[in-house]
């Protein structure tokens, strides 16, 4: 079990996640098709060339999902009861095929659960950066996390 229990977190804890991931054309194509997203900027090379970006844009929901996925091993793997919500999602820069992503997480809030004495609520601020260290995605994730077993 790699994730941390509620009791193991402190406000301000920060993690630079070790796993990095280069986004491939297949990643973008499969995710876009799997989610029934017909946006030509994700699928049509000619339409993308005619856009201000001049190339295929990686599907933003893939970018968001990758950011959260890169964080799970260090944060909630084996300790998560439920994700309670995502908030303040922003994507200040585009992601392109061939970009290599890395994620960082900071603990921005910790609260005892009123309804579950064996759990607490952790609010993570996840950030995703490309190979140029440009912020490409950020959000807050609130999660109900188990307390350390007694």
UniProtKB/TrEMBL annotation:
Question: Organism's domain of life?
Answer: Bacteria
Q: What Pfam families does the record tag this protein with?
A: MaoC_dehydratas
Domain named MaoC-like: residues: 12-121
Q: Which residues form a coiled coil?
A: none
Which CDD domains does the record associate with it?
A: FkbR2 (cd03451)
The record ties this protein, via PANTHER family, to: BETA-METHYLMALYL-COA DEHYDRATASE, MONOAMINE OXIDASE-RELATED
Q: What is this protein called?
A: MaoC family dehydratase
Which lineage?
Answer: Bacteria, Pseudomonadati, Pseudomonadota, Alphaproteobacteria, Hyphomicrobiales
